[in-house]
Sequence to fold (700 residues):
Amino acid sequence: MADFGFSISKPQSIDTNDMDVGRLQALEAKVPSFKRCINCGACTATCSAGQFGGFNIRRIHNLYRWDQRKGLEKELQQCMLCGKCTLVCPRGVNLRYLIIRLRKALADNK
Amino acid sequence: MSSNFHPFVLPFTIGTLALFSVLILKYNKWISKFDRQQKKLIRRNLFTGKLIPAVWEMINEGLFHKKVSRYNRRLGYMHRSIALGWFLLISVGFVETVFHFQGRGHAPWIGVFFRFFVRDNQTLSAWIFAQIMDLLLLYILSGVTMAVFKSIFSKTVGMRKTTRLKLFDTSLRYSLWSIFPLRLLSESATAALADNGGFLTQSLGNLMGERFAGVVELPLWTLYSIALGLFLCLLPFSRFSHIFTELMLIYFRKMGLREREKPTGFTRFELSACSRCGICIDNCPLDSELNITDIQPVYLIRDIRNRMPHRNATENCLMCNRCESDCPVGIQISEIRRQERDKKKLDTHDNYGYIEDVQSFNAIGRVIYFGGCMSHLTPGITESMKKIFDTVGQKYWMMDEERTICCGRPLLQQGFFNQAAELRRKNTQLIMESRSKTLVTSCPICYQSFRKEYNLPIKVVHHTEYIVTMLRLGKLRLNRSELRLAYHDPCELGRGCGIYDEPREVLSALGQLLKLEQEYKNSLCCGYNLGNTVLELDQQLKVRDASLRNLTDSHPDVIATACPLCKKAFQHSTTQPIKDVAELVVENLR
Fold:
């Protein structure tokens, strides 16, 4: 199949009974502005790492929101921390700090 | 009892011995922790001419406190009177003793308690010495009085705030302050009995009267000795260790030693050289705008030294370096903070597989233009630079036209050393393969990174430097108008790389440059500095507004800056347009 650099996501279901809401709450306590996120995707659109394909910060924080942590730690390491996402965020989410806290949370709770 | 000894000299003698043994032990330990490169520098430079400028600086800073005086004259006087005064008191006391004994042996403590031990001395030279010693004591006492006032009303010496001290430091400070009044009183008491005082001690002694002086003389000398002993004993464990450590540090710096990526023995010297004067507090925008009062260098250094938790102090800093630029000891505080930010486990290897297939470009005869991540958010700057290159007929290769590999500095500032090195490695490879001779960058963050962290064998210039060169060569010609311009010094470009005059030269060529209250090395951070990740947007905006007030006070037509991040920070927050130097140049091309 032709490689478009993206593909249609496979359907997935999340069993909310298995979800640990505490993790998200702990993250939101550290980065309060994360609560303001409206999932617009401006962060991903401007992302320096995203230009190379493959890295999608919106997808990552969305998955973490639903406690879907598999593979996220490795994926997040691709961030170059340049901070463009934080500057373009229309809701003033402190994404750089969010990324660092996320990486820490993922490394701590394996 | 021999006239050379009295038990009250013991506290002082023990204190002095303890002081020097502890200092030697500590310094030894720290020097052994220097890394290989630092040790090599010492071996190479120890016995060279470096000692002479070092001693000169030690005199200027350790005794005369020139840098403090330059920052604030009253504060300088306070430090100078105590340091220089005390040093002279000890030296003149030593000379007086040697002169009196004329080569005959005497115990080493005699110089400190001279008036007590040498009582029947009525020669003219003794009288002159007594006057000099009294004058010096008066000089010190004036400084101590200022210090007492400063601790209560910091504004009396022109400081906005004074350092909050812990109990240990406070008590030690009292013991320092008490030394000199005690010396005055005990010498006065002796003067009353032996008539060997100067203008100050003799008058005070006469006031005391012989009977009273007879009772208090010995207790006073004992207290004086105890105060001295206590102070000397505890000195190496307190902030007063800066008295000796600063001198060592000056010598090390002259030999070329600097902070490294990871903490070394040199870092211990720097930490120990902080006198907690609090100048950094007055300079910190987080203190003045956000009332965050526990993260300033003075507190961070204290907590690192005392092995107290300091995660918050480490992280919450803009790294604008306004503190460092006025530090009288010149401590590399941002480097130390960065070492403390070391992310250890999080700082992983082999993260950026995706940059590997980026290809270089044969750029022989061209300049490399690196806009930087931030310039991608302010395309006006990159467009202007392209226009400028075209105007001067310079071919260029824009390295990050489509896909940006970050310079690595944002990662480095947050303590991801390996990850930053990975990006640097790839960028270096691209630059070297292009075989270009010059790299022009628009972003001061990248500029500082390329200049200081990359070790590139080619010329690295910021676009303001490039434009100045082109103006001087006559390749660019500008229309000068009456445009009123306020220039904002970006932290990374000004304090970071010392580029203050180039942007000003460009701006003066096209308009009228206004004088601001806070500029050059005192310029205020725009609040968006990538050094900080912790501040929330509303806090950043408060810092920005303070910076903006400084810029708009003189009612400029345009606010100019030379950093895409600063431009982005100020944009749409004021009625004046915010423009980069490059954009202004393109608008006013002749």
Observations:
- The mean pLDDT of chain B is 92.
- Chain B touches chain A through 34 residues (CB under 8 Å).
- DSSP finds 28 helices and eight strands in chain B.
- The longest strand of chain B covers residues 484-488.
